[in-house]
Structure formats: C-alpha cells, structure tokens
Amino acid sequence: MPHGPGQVARALRAAPPDQLAETADGALRTALGAVRTELFIADYRFSGLWPVLDPDLPDGGSLTGQGVAQRCFSSQQPVLDSGENGRCRAYLPLSVWGERLGVLLVELPGTPEAATVEAVREVADELAVALRAADRETDRYRRARRRERLSMAAEMQWDLLPGRSVTHGDFVLAGQLEPAYTVGGDHFDWSVDGDRLTLTVLNGAGSGLAASLLTAVTVNAMRNARRSGGSLVEQAELASDTIFYQHRGSRHVATLLLELDTRRGVVRAVDAGSPHVLRLRGGTVSPIALEQQLPLGMFAETRYDVQEFTVEPGDRLFVVSDGVYAARPDAQEPYGERAMARAMRSTRLQPATEAVGTVMRELHAYHADADLRDDAVVVCLDWRGSSPVDVASGR
User: Which positions fall inside the PPM-type phosphatase domain (predicted)?
Assistant: First the structure.
C-alpha cells in the first residue's frame, strides 16, 4: 500500500485510465489519512468545476458558487479551508505544462503541516499528468467536462486542439473556442520546439461539419509540413495546395501563422487573409499591421511571404478571429472597433489563462448573452523575455 507521494504516483501509473479518481482517493486515505477526496474537472467553457467521484455532489457547479475552488483554479495555488470538527480542506490545482484541468480536493483530519500540503501537491501534479494521458484511453473525464451534448463539428474541433494553455520559461499562451458546444470552423494550433513557438489561428469558412472537416485538413497539412521541418512559408503553401486540389478554389481558409523566437522576441508571420493581431503594451491596445495575403486554398500554387515584428518583455498579444473582431449584434458597431480594446485593457492584471475568458465573456455580454452568430476564437500570448531585438541587425 502507498505510504508517500512517490508510491501514490506509482499507484496512479498502475491504475486503469478510467479509475484514476478512485485510485487517488484510496492512496491519499492510506498515505495521508485523508477522510475524503474529490476530483473536479473544468468544463469546456471554464464556467464550472464538476465532480468525478460523486457527480451529484453539491460542491460541483458554476464557478460563482465555488468560492474556494475557484480561487484555487484561478490562482493555480493551493488553498486551505478550515471546516467543522477541526478538519481542513486542501484544494490543489490540477495542471500540466500550464494547462489547467481542474482541482483536487483533499479533506484532512486536522490542519496540515507544510510538508503534508507539499506532499498533496506532488500527488496533484502526478494526477494531472495521468489525467492528460488518460484522455486518450477513456471518455470518463470528457463526459465530466461537457455540460451539454457537443455537435459533431465541435467534437472534432476539441479533439484537434493541442490544449487550451501552455506555460514556458519565456511565455504563457492560452486560447478559447466559442460557442463551445457547437463551434464549427474556427480553430487554433500551437507547438513548442526549443526556442521556437509556432502558433496558427484559423478563421474557418462556413459552418457545421463541412467547416470542421475543412479545418481538420488545413491543420493537419500545416502540422505535416511543420513536423517535417518545413518553414512557416512551407506550412502555409502545403496547406493551401492541399485545400485547392481538394476543392478547386471553391473553399478556402483565412489563416494567420506566427513563429515566435522565444529567446529574442522576434515574430515571423504569414497573414493569409485574417485573423487579427493586437498588442497590449502597458495600458494601450494597438493592432499589428500585417500585409494580408490570399487565404489558403483560393488559387493553385499560391506563394506566401514572411513579415516580421518584435515584442518587448511584458507585451501581450491577442489573436482573434472575425467572429470576435467583426461581431455586430443588432446593427451595433463591430465589437472590434472599441469594446474589444476595453475588454483587453481590463485584463492587464490577469494571467493569459484568465484573459481569454474575460475577452470572450465581454463578447457574450456585447451580444446581450444571446447566442453568438459566428464562431469565435481568442488566443492570448504573453512574452516574458529579457530584452527586445533589433530585427535589421539581427541582434
């Protein structure tokens, strides 16, 4: 039986993928004398944390009703909450490589020592890694994550995502899709490789399953080129040729491809017909002017050029699809004209993982909480590098 975090971790690795919550519960009771545990999973919209062991638990529900768990999830720090009979509830964030999955609740018989809290945190870290891996082998945690049935198109889009956030020594990156349960063609993808971060945001054409299929072809074509060592231009051109020879110009995908040198702060970009890049520096939001080129797949053998710009330490970049920028409910001015910049400025003190939710919530409020009329993507990138660079000199 487990007697410490190391053996709890081994128990998790040996557990069936659909039994991680039960395994963690039993191991924590044995190793640390826990009297109760619960695993909470964040839903697709990050609107709530939902229990896995006991789906009917009153602790589950919207984040507005979960003050302590919400504080843990938002801050990504352990939170202790003293309860009745001298017991203490320890809430631990479940995250891996910066992707927030949920919260682990461990109820202990008394106020824990710092070493006990650290031991529980180690278990939470191991559990988060196990949960990420288990998603390939079981549907249990995905079922907990959804609060309504996904459309077929949305199912494909969520499966295609690399994740919803990632943390690196030099940057933090987060993204969100809406409407979460019916999103069709809009999408984002990223990959970290040494000092290079590649990010793509797609403004998918059309709606429903046809749009999702087109996006899947586009994303996988760019991944194929990237994983074969292809440059940003080669990624765009392979995807464009693939789409054209499948649809002969009748379908195309507006796409932005970015490649950040995470050490120097140089961004290389291919702007294939949208989406929009905006920079938050201090309290000022300003668009990054890029020369728009043809959307992917519009013509045969389209060739693309790379443009460059730089970021400074502390800069925040937002990339938004037309469903965000051009949203215009009830004949109002577009969301991107003024309201979006206000929402972005309001995120100055929030981490990137919270900032994407703020911009998306303000978009919903702009629509008076009616259903969005178009797919919407918000991606937020914070660069934490040490110095800007002179592009011309390469220094």
Answer: 168-383
Work out the average pLDDT over 25-32. Answer: 92
Q: At 29, give phi and psi (nearest 5°).
A: -65, -40
Question: 118 and 253, same structural domain?
Answer: no
Reported confidence tier of residue 4, pLDDT bands at 50, 70, 90: low
**pLDDT digit string, tens, across residues 227-280:** 999 999 999 999 999 999 999 999 999 999 999 999 999 999 999 997 899 999
In a domain, 108, yes or no: yes
Q: What are phi and psi of 346, to 5 degrees?
A: -70, -10
Whether 78 is covered by a domain: the verdict is yes
Specify whether 373 is located in the same domain as 342. Answer: yes
Spatial separation of the C-alpha atoms in residues 104 and 283, rounded to whole Å: 36
239: closest CA among 114, 206, 230?
A: 230
Burial class (CB within 10 angstroms; exposed 0-12, middle 13-18, buried 19+) of 53: middle
Is 50 part of a structural domain of the chain? yes
Q: Are residues 174 and 36 in the same domain?
A: no
The SS3 of residue 317 is: strand
152 and 225 belong to one structural domain? yes
Non-local CB neighbours of 36 within 8 Å, separated by 6+ positions: 105, 106, 107
* Beta-sheet pairing, 196-203 with 187-193: antiparallel
- For residues 345 and 212, state if they share a domain: yes
Q: What is the pTM of this model?
A: 0.90
Counted domains in the chain = 2
Give the other-Cβ count within 10 Å of 155's Cβ: 17
- Residues 6+ away with beta carbon under 8 Å from 190: 162, 166, 173, 175, 197, 198, 199, 200
Measured distance CA(163)–CA(128) in Å, rounded = 13
Q: What is the DSSP string of 337-354?
A: TTHHHHHHHTTTTS-HHH
Q: How far apart are the first and last CA of the chain?
A: 57
Q: Give yes or no for a contact between 24 and 127, defined as CB atoms under 8 angstroms apart.
A: yes
- Give per-residue pLDDT as tens, 348-365: 999 999 999 999 999 988
Confidence at 57, pLDDT banded by 50, 70, 90? low
Q: Is residue 323 part of a domain?
A: yes
CATH at residue 46:
3.30.450.40
